Amino acid sequence: MADPSSQRAYRAACPGCGAPVSFRSAQSTHAVCGYCQSTVVRNGDVLSRVGKMAELFDDHSLLQLGASGQIPAASGTGSIGFTLIGRLQYRSSSGTWTEWLALEDDGKTASLSEDNGAYVYARPRKMKRDMPDPSKFRLGLSTAIDGQQYSVASNDQVTLISAQGELPRLPPLGEPFAMVELRSQGDATQGNVITLDYGPTLSGKAIMVSIGTPVQLEDLHITGLKDESTKDEKGRHFDCPSCGAPVSVELESTKRLTCGSCHSLIDLTQGIGAEVVAAKQTEPVQALIPLGTTGQLQGKAWQVVGFQHRMGEEPDDPDEQFGWSEYLLYNAKAGFQFLVDAEDGWSLVKPATGAPTVSANLQEASYLGKKYNLLYSYKAETMYVEGEFYWPVERGQKTFNRDYGTGNALLSQEESAKEITWSSGVKLKAETVALAFGLKDKLDLLQRDAAPTSGMSIKTKIIILLIVLFVLWMVYLAVKQDDCNPNVEKCSTSSGSSTRISSGSWGGYSSGGSHK
Questions:
Q1: Dist. CA 25–CA 122, nearest whole Å
Q2: Nearest CA among 426, 424, 436 for reference residue 116
């Protein structure tokens, strides 16, 4: 393993203010002065000022320049150390994200970026063939790269909004460019991510290709993280733009959150220091598990930080509707998971980095050596949100979902206009949820998987069902004009009739986006 101290470093005075600007990596061509934010380009031993960098938005990340850790070596044998030397902040249709430039002990560079609440460590990759134009990559399309099957998970326009430290290249600020993300298909691993960056540079255009693998911060053994006790907390509190009540941001990765007083949904993708935008929410839905509650699941402590209620409808029958709720769970080291409360039971799911293999007729999916059968296909819409979210969730957000299952295992695909995401999980009993979150007194409200008629004969069940259906129909006729209940139906504030819930389904989660 190379000693990082043996790598040649270069330091020169900033052309803008005279402060020292360092280059630890021989591959770095640009840097941002930490004193005056001048963008400087290196040409041999000469630095030239080419502009001024915008201020970083405060994402409250625990990572910072100079932090170091360990990662498996590219050769596949042993591990190698790395140090974070640069930072790029981007914006796309799915929000903002940060990529950290990592200098490995052998002098090569890589990147560390967030992916659905987890992290992806990626290294540059030379392709054996030229990459096609981004318009050729259609969402869901399967393609082979270096003998491995990949699925197109995202195709979006992105812009660089800020940078810090030293960088191997620097796209001009605010200039949109295409970025395509491919997710590996197959059962061998948890999934690789290939990113095709079509961004311009100051010297022209070039396709930058990188391949990454999912990692967790605790597995990287990172030292030099920010001391949480010394964080500047001023920027994490502000007044609600809608009602003026104080609002507090608790998580580093929050992109949207709601005001606890008026339930307005507040957009933080510009950073708290920028102007925040609030959207009013009516018809609040009551969460069974209060925000802030901590529970024990799968041997870890999970805190409920977000809640959303969603509605689904059959693709060819808008009258066939159903509703479910999702709780966003957070663990500082393990990232995020979703606790799903649907009419047919509870489930615990998490984002999947890889792309499962789907049969041509879409009736089967294969992931990590397990085959799943299609359960439901439906349109989904977010109706109400509360708490904090690491992606820019919004009311009215729509996706097309497919849910697959086998035994207690579940697999869900969500498709939006520019992205496809997958999540995998398992079914849970209501008793498990009640025990985990200390809600034994609410077990009757949490119960979704009970079968009170399981001991009856088929004839008896049919008779009871007919009676229940008749009674429900009479009740429906009697209360048809009553107020709409947003817990179980899609409500409308305009005049006219509402459509009642008629079936239940296990639901996925609103797209958390890729590591972009």
A1: 17
A2: 424
**79, 84, 294, 319, 388 from 333: Cα distances, Å:** 21, 19, 15, 43, 18
Which amino acid is it at 338?
F
CA-based end-to-end distance of the chain: 31
The C-alpha atoms of residue 398 and residue 416 are separated, in whole angstroms, by 7
Where would I find the beta strands (DSSP E) of 276-397?
277-279, 294-297, 300-314, 317-331, 335-342, 345-352, 357-358, 364-367, 370-389
Rounded CA separation 383/397 (Å): 8
Q: State how far the Cα of 59 lies from the Cα of 12, in Å rounded to an integer.
A: 29
Block residue for tokens 């819409």:
381
Q: What is the pLDDT of residues 420-468, one digit of tens each?
A: 888 999 999 999 999 999 998 888 888 864 333 333 444 444 566 667 6
What is the pLDDT at residue 277? 52
Residue 357 in tokens: 């293999």
Domain ranges of the chain: 62-220, 234-446
Q: Which amino acid is at 25?
A: S
Give CA angle at 38 (33, 44), nearest 5°: 75
- Whether the full predicted model's pTM is greater than 0.85, yes or no, is no
60: alpha, beta or left, given left = phi > 0 and alpha = psi -120 to 50? left
pLDDT > 90? residue 232: no
C-beta of residue 307 within 8 angstroms of C-beta of residue 300 = no
Report which of 195, 266, 262, 194 is spatially closest to residue 237, judged by C-alpha positions.
266
Q: What is the pLDDT of residue 451?
A: 35
Within the chain, how many helices (H) and strands (E) appear? 4, 33
